[in-house]
Every structure is written in C-alpha cells, then in structure tokens.
Design brief:
Blueprint (H helix, E strand, L loop, with lengths): L1 E6 L11 H7 L7 E5 L5 H10 L4 E5 L3 H13 L5 E4 L2 E3 L3 E6 L16 E8 H7 L7 E4 L5 H6 L2 H5 L3 E6 L6
Parallel strand pairs: 1-8, 1-9, 2-3, 2-8, 3-4, 5-7
Antiparallel strand pairs: 6-7
Length: about 180
Amino acid sequence: MTTYLYSGGLSYAFGRPSESNILRFFEPKGGWTVVDACVFIGWYTLIASKKVDAEGKVLAIEPHPRNFSILLRNIRDNDLKNVIPLNIALSDRDGYGWLAILPSPAQHSIMFSLDHRIPVKMKKMDAMLEELNINQVDLFKIDVEGAELKVLKGSENILKKRNKINYRDFSTCRN
C-alpha cells in the first residue's frame, strides 16, 4: 500500500499555485482515510469527502476557531457524514502552543512568534490517530504554513507503517 503525502508549502513570493495544478495530484480514492491538515474552511475536505465515499473518512484539522466554525458549517451544509473535524494544530509535540494570526486567515501558523497570537491545542499526528483508533492513512494533505517538518516529526509511527510514500510539494506549482 502506498501513502500519498501532499504538502502545501505555498510560496506567495511566486504567486499562489493554481487550484487546477493542485487538483491534478490530489486524488483520494474510495475507502481511503485522508488527513487534511489546516483545512482553512474545508474546500479540499469537501472534495476528499466526496471521493472517499461512505467507506472512507476525512480528518479535517483546523486550529483557528473562526475558520473551524466555518468548517463545521460547511460540513453540516454539505451533509458530510465521513468527516471528523478537529480543532487542533498538528505538531511534533502534544500540549498547548501559540498560533500566530496573520492578515490572511489562510496563513495563520504555529511557526511565527508574533504579538497577535492565540493559544491552541497541539497534537502529534500519531497521538491523534491513536485516540481516534485509526491505524492507516492513505493520503496526507499538509498545508501548515511552514510547520510541515513539525507535522512529519509527529507522524513518525504512522509513516513507518507504510512501505512506499509518494510526496508532492505544491510550492513549485504556478498559476
């Protein structure tokens, strides 16, 4: 079994990657378990939910309270029964940390130490999956504004279970 790992790593210096470029590689299949880290308001969560169908599941992770409330509304309004929303930040440790609040609501990050920040619950992906009794993840979409390495370090156990990992970083995608 192959695990697919997609990293946001969006580089605004070169322009936001086009959604069509990202969607060429973001192809969850029926029955898959998908982790969507930092979903913002859930656009990719919606796509993944429809593609993994009733047998699959999507873990939609968003640490910012306002974005999370919009995500919950989108899940409800689209009747997504296979989505598990989690109001946490994935990291390399469990506990609490700070989420820096940037001007764009899609750019908040645990990597910056700004004056404008809020406390957030942080979890290792391995600990989160264990709590949810999930033993396999088929696709990770990670767009955590520079904290990708922290997320991967907290995912060590689940990644070791995979015999092959395909990786795609979208920072090189252009409009």
